[in-house]
């Protein structure tokens, strides 16, 4: 574990590493200001340590090899993103300039920040909650728009909000249950098991609905795994190329050309898809081909969605039957390829007629892929769980609530054990695990006194 | 009286007596200083011991070798098991106590205790040298040398009683209060706080029309507080239940300006769970009536405690309020209700051993630590006494964990979270409630009590016998195969269970809802010679095995944090990453384990993550 004490000064590019009008280089840590003093001087002749905090100053950054005319701003700890002393430089766009500036900072005593290190420090310094920090990290590491949306929502505390609401409901329910143990002889209406059960069912539904989106969340984070299957020469590689919109696989007319799997990524509507092309499945004596086939079979279980490419110009072969058997219980789309060589065909529900070679039906196929893999869940839905820790905590909460519901014939003090487990699981998201609020709720709700 | 003692206990209430007995019984020359002998173990408020969660505390005090349970059993007028219809974890004993007999009986125990002297005087000054206790001075000029002082002043420190505008500098029930010690504590650097509590009027029994009330009887054949009590005292008295009327409410609302609680006269912080009747009426204005109980105080006089009517209203208003209740139209008030304010310290200034962080050898226990209740006081007194002895013997202090005892929860709450109002024990404060039952207090604590020198050989032997029986009967339940029979199935049907179709172990049958081990035995007669407590213990352990397992898993998880100790000299103020509030709180509290740190209010889970990073 790294030492939080005496934080080293770190530096990195804070804007996307792509061509843009402006690039921002951020430096954070104990010596950020001293280092900046060595490198930057404003047009008024002031060093960053003499700036008014949070005021932009125009000036010159001297990298040693070139001078960059740019803006500089200083943030004093703890009033900065990381909670440490921070200096930021707003530079002209262009990798040469930013690289030169960062190199100069490093030469003067900073070190290159690792991915997410600014945010990690912000968390360590108490600038943001764990959930917010994790949301920010997800955003930083996001590769697709949908993932950024999910990260953003988490950052906004949507999940915390749900966990908080669920915790509040449990607090309320527990206070009603607990009061009957601590004050058994009061003239208050004690909660009945029926009420407890009804309210728990409602709560379970709510948490479970969010949990359902967890799978979508995982797809967003890791991308949807798509496997392309089909007998040799059905057009798998052509389809892959059509999906990726550029020549990726070697397309030949010889069956079995694609001996190993090929992996790549494409994006539909902001969602990332990882596509894997495989060797055609058929019984063969060719050892290399055999390895490819076995791998394909195991890959089926690992994929989120299978696209089965069928040669529409030839009748189903034994190999097609074999593939169809393998896909009986698997979410899949049948892409009937070579429409240019086919007569009229009415596709069934999970079928799409395409011509990979001529780019016909590819957009329809993409729509279908998107619709099936996100399973009807709106990707922009407010709460999508992208973080395994949150998913795990929510599942445990739901599980404990279900245990309470199914054991409703037991006495309420035993039921309360499972409810407290649910409460503390939710607390791993909200940060509140003390349970003191249950006692407060008892006193604010009931008139007690013995 | 000598001039030199191993330990001096200041205050002869429920905390002080347990502390003094624990010290004397472990061989220390002990002096108990009390303002008056009449107030030794005086039940100043309600004439009862036990109740929800408090019953648990008394059973634990008993298992550790304390005195309260023994004396409560001996002086019981009526005994009930609260929450009897609910699960075993929340069963709570509550006894109506003969308060005069209890006081006398406890005084006798103290006076006959070897190594223990009693001095009637007022402790005025704690003497220290280099941060260590050297002696105690009294207001009549005595100076006693000692290494240990246990302060258990209850509600007597600078106390004042309030009845309307009539304010007196005195202790409860007109007893003299203590006025010197506060300034001594302030000199030693303790911040003094002011808490408040109150008590209802006492009525003349013969002036009450009991016809208007509902009778509340005691329970027969239930568990007693003490493991050593052979037979439960017969229930000789009953309590009565009644209600305030709309008239009562009106009288209070009309005279609210006379209530010191609302006129601003009372500044002390009162408990939320024991509010005065005027507070109840103001805070819960939609409630038309409030419950009251009539409780007998003693065999020696005819005073009745009017529970639920705690107030600090002027006397004439108290008459009107009492007379507005059905059955109390002609009631004679023997003692007026009053509020009482007193000095106490912040328990955050204490280690979990109850020794103060500032002064070596100075312990605090009971209401001065901001708690309320006889049971909470006695529990702390016992632990302070035990730890003072262990300190004198050079041994490590006894710190009960939250999963070991309600006493552990109590002291951990006080010393890590502190309290902003008089603290009362509640079952909902114990997160591991299922394992902290009254019925297994002996199993949890007898050995510990023996190790610290308070449990006698006789008790230990009796306890070991019980444990052997529990083991034997458990094995019997697991190995005895029960075959279906007409008699058994008739019984099962009578408790709403389906008939037994094929043979199964006895333990499987016990797991069914409503099926009791002793009931079952009446029908299948497969075991004999086991006591009631043993049978019910085995039944609980088998019936709730699943829940007990889950609770234990949770305990294991939390124990990991408890076992992570924090170096005493750790620098929180310079700990990078900690929020300022957390730094200050941790620096002030200096918790001994990460578990204790995690329970400090103002320390967030993120702070704990950072603390763990620094420790790793």
Describe the protein.
The complex is a heterodimer of chains A (450) and B (616). Chain A is α/β, with parallel strands linked by helices and 450 residues long. Chain A has three domains: 10-122, Gyrase A, domain 2; 158-217 and 384-445, tRNA modification GTPase MnmE domain 2 (Four Helix Bundle (Hemerythrin (Met), subunit A), Up-down Bundle), CATH 1.20.120; 222-373, P-loop containing nucleotide triphosphate hydrolases (Rossmann fold), CATH 3.40.50. Chain A is built from 14 helices and 13 strands. Chain A has helices spanning 32-39, 95-107, 117-124, 130-141, 145-155, 158-182, 193-222, 236-244, 287-302, 318-326, 362-373, 388-406, 412-430, 436-445, and strands at 10-13, 22-28, 40-42, 57-62, 67-75, 86-92, 111-112, 224-229, 262-268, 271-277, 305-311, 332-337, 351-353. Chain A has a seven-stranded mixed beta sheet with strand order 3-4-5-6-2-1-7. In chain A, β9 (262-268) and β10 (271-277) form a beta hairpin. In chain A, α3 runs antiparallel to α4 (130-141), α6 (158-182) runs antiparallel to α7 and α7 packs antiparallel against α12 (388-406). Residues 1-5, 247-259, 279-289 and 376-382 of chain A have low confidence and may be disordered. Chain B is an alpha+beta fold and 616 residues long. Among the domains of chain B are: 202-340, Beta Barrel (Elongation Factor Tu (Ef-tu), domain 3); 457-548, Arc Repressor Mutant, subunit A (Orthogonal Bundle), CATH 1.10.10.1800; 564-615, DNA polymerase, domain 1 (Orthogonal Bundle). Helix content of chain B is 36%, strand content 17%. Chain B has 21 helices and 23 strands. In chain B, strands 15-16-17-18-14-19 form a six-stranded antiparallel beta sheet, with no helix packed on it. In chain B, α2 (54-63) packs parallel to α10 (374-392). The longest helix of chain B has 23 residues, at 457-479. Chain B is globular and about 80 Å long. The model of chain B has no long low-confidence stretch (mean pLDDT 92).
